[in-house]
Amino acid sequence: MKPDVIGMGTCCVDLLARVKEIPPSNGSVHLDQYSWQGGGKVPTALVAIATLGASCGFAGPVAGDRFGRFCLSDFHHHGIDTSGVLIQTDSKTPFAIVVAETAKSTRTFLKTNGELERMSPSALEPGIFSQCRFLHLEHMGDLEIRAAELVRSRGGKVVFDADRYWPGMERAVPHTDVFIASEDYFEKAFETGRLEDNMRLVQAEGPGIVVVTLGAKGCALLDGDHFAEVPGFTVPVVDTTGAGDVFHGAFIYGLLQKWSCEQTARFANAAAAIKCMRMGGRAGIPSRAVVDAFLEDGHIDFMEIDRRVRYYEDALFQTDEG
Q1: Got the DSSP string for 101-118?
Q2: Which of the residues 16, 264, 295, 312 has the least number of beta carbons within 10 Å of its own beta carbon?
Q3: What angle do CA 253, 10, 112 make, to 5 degrees?
Q4: Res 233: pLDDT
């Protein structure tokens, strides 16, 4: 069975650490918690989609190092199709150490970009997209434009994650059906004007649905002529890493269910909020049943989520070597 959603993006690995306070130079501090988790905007969104119960697959390069094998092992653990993966044997996986400082509610990132090479459009296997209902992207180069053309020519839709703004990103807009951007993107792309007006300017370039994530405040959405603000949820926050990625995955899941945009946005807000109650982008991802119960009465069953937390404490060291 072909996946309903195909994602193309950068597979990363995060070592997440939580301390009360970062010590001064040459000092030391007790490590309250740590976790090895896969990262990357689109890959984490795919894990969210799979955890919620939909079929998805990843297409693109993955490094052949230990971290790359961990990325693939985590995909396999969640039932994500990897037939579209191209393993780059001599490449290195992007890696980040994320230190959460609880006394200040801040995070510090130590990052390496890895050594993955971009695939050429000729390396795409068109059959991967034959039954794809949604293509989820975080970049829009020649490779992604070709993939978007394939998906749209067969009746599928393209979802784009505009987490950050950089000059030239506007190139993505005409090739996108669902444009989900951060508040930061709109602040940098449009220095003036009301948010709703600027969302309509983006919509005029192509996407029928435009969404702006607003952190704890929820999100704003534009679906055709309909504009709405959908409030977020107040929860005890442990870590916001990956919250936007989980929102994207949950939003795509709602679109697969053919819910209204407002119902979809409320569901995605809830899934992202629940994720924030555990450390890292993937350990706190809830199932559909957990999100539904939370939306119904505010209750969260952490039994399943905390099994995920324990899985990620040593998942790197149980990597599938196959």
Answers
A1: ETTTTEEEEEEE---PPP
A2: 295
A3: 135
A4: 96
CA-CA distance, 155 to 133, in Å (whole number)?
A: 7
Query: For 180-199, how does the pLDDT look when each residue is reduced to its tens digit (9 = 90+)?
Result: 999 999 999 998 999 999 99
Scan for tokens 């899934």, then name that residue: 271
Q: Rg of the chain over CA atoms, in angstroms?
A: 19
Stretch (H or E) spanning 81: strand 81-88
Query: H or E element: which one contains 63?
Result: strand 56-63
Closest CA to 132 of 144, 118, 145, 150: 150
pTM flag (> 0.70): yes
How do strand 209-213 and strand 106-112 relate by DSSP bridges? unpaired
Cα–Cα dist 212/226, whole Å: 14
- Give the Cα separation of 277 and 243 in Å (integer): 10
**pLDDT score of 73 more than 80:** yes
Q: Mind listing the domains of the chain with CATH numbers?
A: 5-11+43-92+121-316 (3.40.1190.20)
In this structure, which amino acid lies at residue 79?
G
What would the two tokens of residue 206 be?
């192509």
Give the SS3 label for residue 25: coil
Q: What does the DSSP 8-state code read for residue 278?
A: S
Q: Which two tokens stand for residue 73?
A: 């092992």
Which pLDDT tens digit goes with each residue over 206-254? 999 999 999 999 999 999 999 999 999 999 998 899 999 999 999 999 9
Max alpha carbon distance in the chain (Å)?
A: 59
Q: Where do runs of H (alpha helix) occur along 133-276? A: 142-153, 183-189, 195-203, 243-256, 261-275
Residue 298 has a CB neighbour count (10 Å cut-off) of 10
Between the CA atoms of 8, 14, 19 and 25, what dihedral angle is there, to the nearest 10 degrees? -120
